[in-house]
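Case study B.
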Amino acid sequence: MGNNIMRRWPALMPVAISVLLYAFTVIVQPSALNWTAVTSIVMLTLLLSFASAGQTLVLIGGGMDFTVGAVMSASAILTAAIMNSQDGRFLPAFGAVMVMSVAIGLLNGVCTVKIGLPPLIVTMAISNVVSRLQYILTQGSPLGYASPAFIRTVTSQLFGVVPSLTLYALVLFPLMFYILNRSRLGHQVYLVGNNPVAARLNGIGVNKVVILTYVISAVFSGFTGMLGAAYMQSAKCQMFDEYAYNSLIAVIVGGTALTGGVGTYTGTIAGALLMVVLNNTLTTPALQLTPPMRNILLGLVMVLLLILYNRGKAVRQ
Amino acid sequence: MLEMRAIDKRFDAVVALKGARLNSSPGEIRALLGSNGSGKSTMIKVLAGLVAPNGGLILLDGKRAAIHSGVDSRKLGIATAFQDLSLIPTMSVTENILLGNEPLRAGGFVDKKKARQTIRELLDRFHIDCDPEAYVQTLTPSTQTMLEVAKAVSLNPRMLLLDEVTAALHYDEIQVLFQILRELKAQGLAIVYVTHRMKEVFEICDTATIMRSGETVIDAPVPELTLDDIVYYMTGQRPEVAASASEMDVAQEGETVVDVRDLEVYPKVWGISLKAYKGEIVGIGGLQGQGQPEFIRALLGAEKVATGSIDFCGRKLSLKSPADAVRMEIGFVSGERGREAMFPLRTVQENITAGKVAKGNVGEYMTPKSLRAFANQAVDKYNIKIGELRDPASSLSGGNQQKLVIARWIAMNPVLLLLDDPTRGVDVHSRREIHKILRQCTDEGMTVIISSSDNEELLDISDRIYVFYEGSVSDVLSGEGKTADRLVAAMMGMGAANQKGGDQ
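Model:
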């Protein structure tokens, strides 16, 4: 029964844990309860869930995309360099980012499909190349800032309270919902992830579907990188690298199976929330955790969560 | 020397052996014969220590022998060459042959020099032309099979079991093998030889043990048996004399939907021609592994066609993938539900709509309503017993899963439906329903090509039956000629098409 609820609403548990964690933070440090903190959690959650959208698709299709972080960083550098603090350059920047993203996505997909190496290895290698390229092209010190207007679309407060980044969610969330749950591609991705052999014999172009998931993932990462550049205002090499791990963990914590075939985007959003809240808790000054301690605790909590999820699955079968 | 008495073996509900017996004496090559599922492979596996019998007695030199494992079997001097090869693909030829039997120097080191010499002698003896250091996976299937036999012989056994080893061998390799078997026989080895090729039985075997449905039907010296006798004991039916070859091209009414000419699919299909007409159910029969799955998958674009042509509705068909075939209105139902058809983690609805989902533009909007309606209709029309559409497909029984897979395609109303042994492991009731559904569809103009391991099913449902034997068509049965006896004879390679070469 409990399993059934968890399967139908995979977002439930991460959201519940997030609420408990935040409550705990507020208890140890009452000053943590303020609107700025909440706004910051919301914004970081949104950024991570945008970055994890494509990752969700890739994982459901049975793959894994480790280039999310590198693509975001490269996109942020491109955005800052092209905009160079000037308004009216959104479209050129967007165009450049999309070309780069599609190219990297294609590379990921084609290499995974054709070389037949595990996707983790392929995308890690490509991610490394993309990271090195950032240094080569910028001499290690990227120039420029995102344009002021673009920055405003990300960081201003609507009606003085709601972060304007939410407006992007109003477009991206439904878009992802459409891709995953309403388009033919989404249905095919689930089938391919669950049983690629059967999917192929059923007439699904398995390779095409897999390549498309990587392209979509890179496009989402690229666009999130642009938003990231606006959020941080300027860009540094490898500035968003941690999003590779974080997106992966957010997706898995959100109930998507590493083996493919199962998963939801709402789960991923909840997973992203949990990641951000957990990080927020661990950085609470009152806990006086040193950065290494924080990392160890973060790791332990992740292991715990993954064990919880895997047990849920075993009971079901 | 060896005697197996009253051997019983059950795999859950399936009875593989009931009171089977087998004798083997030194200096004798004994054929162990039977059709698919008669239990001969199980007998071999009992002797090899891979299968523990539920009952019965194994006597070696009059003493009770306890075979609990492969090691026990080897210690008793029994060596086995398996049909599905026991070689390790990622190890070299030398390592494979000497595995567990390495010549040792003092201190437990492998004596490399001696090993090399042993291997060279062995390879020479078997006329195997390969690098002893080559990885087994790089060798052709026939060389691998020869190695499998060489490995068994290299153990210097008292008794040698060969399970359908010639299936993958070429003619000259078989001659080499037979020469070696004769030498071994002269040295006093007891040899048990499992094969489907009747010619080989008469060529090399001294005695024969024939099994049917897990029981030993007869033990007899080979010279006392005729081909007809063997078929009779294997099937319980006397084969008719095959009809004249002219009956192979029975004129059919209606338009040709599929016209396959001289199709070859490496390494299993050797020059198959087949025609299917609109509204017809074409059956494909034969023993296991005669090229049926490869042939059907070639029509689907899932196997690469080496030579030959496929015409579909008057146009030449060249498929790169099953997706191409589906675009051409061809559907495929696999009998291997778990591996090739079901999506167990996905819902019943998604499993039913998988065919609909497969076909079309990937960006297209698929309304939940239309998908649900499609699934509901299929469930009602084909009488699939489900809980709810959103339950996981793994919640359905085997028979209903298979009905679901068939409904998935039939609801798409394809021009041609390919089915590869679709009723394997399906209960009688569901099977009958599946037959009814197929018949309905052909009445409405669909063309069906169905392979089956069940003869009764083939005779029941097919308008015509192509019988495959070693990758070619040994006979085509239709109308009056569609009899169980003739089907069985053709499965043994004694069909109209093989009359010239296949007689005796």
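The domain at 2-309 of chain A is CATH 1.10.3470 (ABC transporter involved in vitamin B12 uptake, BtuC). The remaining cases will be described in the next quarterly update.
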